[in-house]
Amino acid sequence: MKFSSLSELRPLRLDTLAAIGGFVLAALLFPLRFLTSQLYINTVPLVLGTACALYLLSLYQQRDNTQTFPTLPSAVTMALPSVVLVGLAALVTLTVVQGARTPIFFGLAGVVGTLVIGQILFANDRDLHPGLLLFQIICFAFVFRFTALYATPGYVGIDIWTHQGFVDAILSEQSLSGISHDKHYGSPFYHLLVAASSLLYDVPIRAALYLSVGLVMPLAALLVYSTTNLLVPVRWAVLATALYAFSSHVARWGMHIIPTSLGLVFFLGMLYALIRVMRIEYTIRDFSLLLLMSVAVILTHQVSTFIMLVLLLAAFLAQIVFVIGPLGLTRLDASVFRTKKPVNLIGLVVFNTGLTIFVWSLTPYRRESFLATVLSYFAQTLEESAGFLNIASASSSDGGEAGAEAAPSLIDQVVPYVDALGFLFLLGVTFVGCLYVVHRRRAEQSVFTLLLAAAFMLVFVLGLPMFGIRNFIPTRWFAFLYAPMAILGAIGLQTLRGSLTPALAVTVLILFSLVFPGAMVLAPGSNADNPVFSDHHERLAYDQTELAAAQSIGELTGSPGGDEIRPDQELHTDHPYQTLIDRTGAYPSTTTATVPEGGATNHSYTVYRTEQSTDAVFFPDADGNAEIMNPSREQICRPDQGTVYTNGDVTFCTPSPAGN
Known about the structure:
This protein has helices spanning 14-29, 39-60, 74-98, 103-122, 130-151, 159-173, 189-201, 205-211, 213-219, 221-228, 234-245, 248-255, 259-279, 284-298, 302-324, 346-362, 370-384, 410-437, 445-463, 478-499, 502-522, 544-557, 577-583, 633-636; strands spanning 364-365, 368-369, 571-573, 590-592, 605-609, 617-620, 626-629, 641-646, 650-655. It is mostly helical. The longest helix has 28 residues, at 410-437.
């Protein structure tokens, strides 16, 4: 028999074929673990295989119609919101009493997150109150982020110190000319917003930042709810909101508040507007919102702009699939998705691409335009570094490889997997959600846009770094990637809850509820202010003595300009402390010190702080790669140097006058 299209072959199901293909792909990728020890190469095939197996099991196991999914008793469901609010109050109290977010704080936060997700998954329909659940999620987001900001005297993160200087320059010049030398001159919305908030509220820049972008970040999770609610019932829209709000990289940009943070907010608004025009009979107002959000992203952040263009490309490809219909995907099941003609997005894609190229061509960056510099760096990477399994050296935030010659301890081997566990759990349910939506009677432009966007982003986050290509700054992509992953993940959990036998479904959902919140809380992105694993991850926040030392170094040296400093006068200390001294302008020519194994530095100007001997800080090894080291005070500030400043925690050493 001859078929004119695959859609006429009724027994053929795309979701089944995709699940079988995914399982086979996982089996083929499994041997790569013997070629490299890269974490995601070791874990993603297992996650993919497990997700495909669960989906196939949900398709072919026989579920007794008399069996109902077990839910929480009404009394328990009614009591849990109060327990959650008490837990959140305890988190605030712990931070105030202890002066920092400690491991006890993060352990309790994981328990509170589990209680919230447990309510969503196991409350019966009668006791499910979406508004109350959303209130708990947003309260958790506020408490988790603002306790970190409260306990940190300065800022959390590295880049924020540079952006504070840009905002200060705008306020001083009363115009954008203060940052005309920098790439943010072409995307200044973040800096203008913070500067305007400082003037409007009559507060310092730090307070203005927290009262503007800082307040918006936790609330942005509601955009995920609004987006998901266009696709699935309200229970799963609330779940997607929780999955997103609890994610580590989302929490990171709620504490390290930089243009990436504001770009993420506009990206979520743009995603909502995009899905909205695909799901309703939209008006010019709806499409205008989509256009406005996309332009706001372009004027806020370059990396966010590129990610937005990837999303638009995914939406355009989804449009092509449903217009051409090569796999019969235009025949929808009206009980799942309402049939609607694909939205024509070619004009939007062309407009945003053209505007991006125009803005980037005018944006200054390292003596050229931003566009020319980025293309030059990418070409250089392809020529010099690209290659299969040529894993690029991890940044300091990835943990480094301390003591490569020594046999790693058990904790050294476990910590990287704990860091990635939350992402892997979310990735697993995302795979299930993707398999669900590729069924030809459930597929439509909106969910295919999410599927393709997640796939493309995963290529940039996990795929290209396997070939040594990290030009696209993959760590910045995770928070954006979590938006489609949270929506598809909620669809995946909905599928498992409704299709697996109750016993197996309860097992899967309980495991997810117990592991996901705690794993995300323990991930380094969630606790950069005070890492849970302090000997594996650097602390990207500073106490009052460290801030005072940086300021005092600037006062002692007169904060000379970089061109006034001879090479032998360069200041050396650890990473990330060197970024604080450099980016605050205290001593612009500051870099990391080289510490020979068992020996001392030979630099003339050095800064030692006690954290260098106790927690994770980075120094370059013999090959120039960042490595965790814990030198003693004598290795950084040698006896033949003179001490010109110390506050008991930080010491500034210079050549001794006696030695000269």
